[in-house]
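Shipment paperwork, digital attachment
Item: protein structure file
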Amino acid sequence: MLVLDEPLNGLDPLARSEMIALFRASAAEGSYVVISSHILHEVDVISDQVILLSNGYVVAEGQIQSVRSEIQEHPTQILIRCDRPRELAAKLFESETTIEASIHNDGRGLLLKTRDADRFYLAMNQLALNGIQVESIAPADDDVLSVYEYLIGNEEVVR
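Attachment content:
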């Protein structure tokens, strides 16, 4: 078992990459690698399981996607990259799985919110897109930072 506190602190990008590969190799060989870090985007890269603490108390634990799916008061956000986001938004509202949608800043994406991601993905598969070119569909808030902010608030988060 390895227990590490802020193990990437002060490392250059190459050394960080090498350390992450070392952590993954150790875990693949059967070792437990426990890492404490307040740099949450690094936690996403390093781990497949998390324990989120606030003021010394465990507020969530497990795979981050599982923890995210338990947070019902914040609708799931999904980013869809496509060539005609306004037309796609109209179609998605017809399917009744979308509760809010906004055009991404670059005009080639659609950020939407849904209360039932599984139902949304099924509806998306059944939609006749009529020539709308969809480049990608990806969750926008199933990372450690988003989940932490939903559960605890953002006053303690270091970006």
